[in-house]
Design a protein that fits this description.
There is one protein chain. By secondary structure, the chain is α+β, with helices and mostly antiparallel strands. It is built from seven helices and 14 strands. Among the domains are: 87 residues, 3-Layer(aba) Sandwich (D-Maltodextrin-Binding Protein, domain 2); 69 residues, 2-Layer Sandwich (Alpha-Beta Plaits). The protein has a five-stranded mixed sheet. A four-stranded antiparallel sheet has the order 12-13-11-14. Strands 3-10-4 form a three-stranded antiparallel sheet, with helices on both faces. Helix 2 crosses helix 3. The mean pLDDT is 93.
């Protein structure tokens, strides 16, 4: 994603500090859990980490841009077959690597439980007798099931990768440029360009199907009864849109990937 945004085009494979001289930016590769702390302290201007790690840090950093990858949920799990609800955990020991997120949830939910802080392998805490339940980041839930646990209750937190910045940080043109570039990559990945020919009498109906961002581009063809249309379309909807256009009589429907954009 950073390369698509014009950064780190010459990234050494093993360096943990990279000077991007073309963009006058210095990159540090750090443990994800530490990034929000550095950013919140003002040591680094911005960082990329998970929402779960940002909220758990309590470091005074805030979310700038959601990046759409690294999806996970933070959930409670108890021994399989116990048929428990989150409120049944009152008086229990709950093991987690995210005590900040869990403590906030327990307070909001009115659950009085003891938090057992662990650095890893949280799913084994119940089997080893350290805790009665766990709260952990879950992608598929396979690891929890293998440990004899089942998820209980709704997700405590839905997480993904974020660009984060110190709260109330002053305006920085370099940060604005970084955010704009990364946002353009997200848009380019989420949209495609759709070109098609359609009878001029069907232009209004076609524009309702492909409204684009501001408005579709319409160009006359040599045959005055036909026009060419170009519009940005969500990648996830492109086949449905193509089907609707074809039923309206559109022909020569072409889809083109977008490599970069500014909107």
């Amino acid at each position: 994603m950073l390369r698509e945004a014009g950064y780190l085009r010459l990234m050494p494979p093993r360096d943990l500090v990279i000077q991007d001289l073309d963009n006058d930016v210095e990159f540090f590769l750090l443990r994800p859990k530490d990034i929000a702390t550095y950013v919140g302290a003002g040591t680094l201007d911005i960082g990329i980490t998970g929402r779960d790690m940002l909220l758990d840090s309590g470091a005074g950093a805030v979310e700038l841009v959601a990046l759409g990858f690294g999806d996970s949920t933070f959930r409670l799990a108890a021994p399989s077959g116990a048929n428990m609800t989150p409120h049944d955990l009152t008086g229990s020991r709950i093991a987690t690597s995210y005590p900040g997120v869990l403590a906030d949830y327990l307070q909001r939910a009115g659950i009085d439980a003891q938090i057992v802080r662990l650095d890893g392998a949280v799913e084994n805490a119940v089997r080893l007798g350290v805790a009665d339940a766990v709260a952990d980041v879950v992608a598929t839930g396979t690891t929890l099931r293998q440990a004899g646990l089942q998820i209980i209750g709704d997700p405590i937190l839905v997480s993904e990768a974020l660009v984060v910045q110190r709260a109330n940080a002053p305006t920085d043109p370099a940060v604005d440029t970084f955010v704009r570039r990364v946002t353009s990559v997200l848009v380019a990945r989420a949209y495609v360009l759709l070109d098609y020919d359609i009878r001029t009498s069907e232009i209004e109906a076609a524009c309702r199907i492909t409204p684009g961002f501001e408005s579709p581009t319409i160009s006359p063809l040599h045959d005055p009864e036909w026009s060419a249309v170009r519009a940005m379309v969500p990648r996830s909807d492109v086949h449905r849109v193509m089907d609707e256009l074809y039923e309206r009589g559109a022909r020569g429907i072409l889809v083109t990937a977008i490599h970069a954009c500014r909107l």
